[in-house]
Amino acid sequence: MRKLEIDWTRCDGHGLCATLLPDDVTLDEWGFPVLTGAPVTAGELANARRAVLACPTLALRLSGL
Ligand code: SF4
């Protein structure tokens, strides 16, 4: 089972992940991501990988890879 995770020592709230994965990530009032915590389904995996690669600070990752 794969899940999105955030390294809070790296994330600086660009919000790109919420734009790329609106079903899995929302933003709090300060613009930092809030994960649903739901497993990434096979159908979501390609988009999740794209978001991981696009994170400007390499804070977003997929567990289980
Ligand atoms: S794209 Fe990366 S740095 Fe930006 S909010 Fe998401 S996890 Fe944080």
Structure, explained:
This protein has 65 residues and is an alpha+beta fold. It has a single domain (4-62), classed as Alpha-Beta Plaits, CATH 3.30.70. The chain is built from 2 helices and 4 strands, in the order βαββαβ. The protein has helices at 16-20, 45-54, and strands at residues 4-6, 25-27, 33-35, 60-62. The strands form 2 sheets. It has a two-stranded antiparallel ribbon. A two-stranded antiparallel ribbon has the order 2-3. Strand 2 and strand 3 form a beta hairpin. The termini are close together. The structure holds iron/sulfur cluster (SF4).
Task: Describe the secondary structure blueprint for this structure.
Elements: E1 4-6, H1 16-20, E2 25-27, E3 33-35, H2 45-54, E4 60-62
Antiparallel strand pairs: 1-4, 2-3
This protein binds iron/sulfur cluster (SF4).
Residues 6, 11-17, 33, 55-57, 59-60 line the site of iron/sulfur cluster (SF4).
Sum this structure up briefly.
With 65 residues, the chain is α+β, with helices and mostly antiparallel strands. Helices cover 23% and strands 18% of the residues. It is built from two helices and four strands; from the N terminus they run βαββαβ.
Dominant shape: globular
CATH class: Alpha Beta
Number of helices: 2
Largest sheet entry: 2 strands, antiparallel
Number of strands: 4
N-to-C SSE string, H for helix and E for strand: EHEEHE
- How many angstroms separate the termini? 9 Å
Low-confidence stretches: none
Average residue pLDDT: 94
Number of domains: 1
Protein name: Ferredoxin
Pfam families: Fer4_15
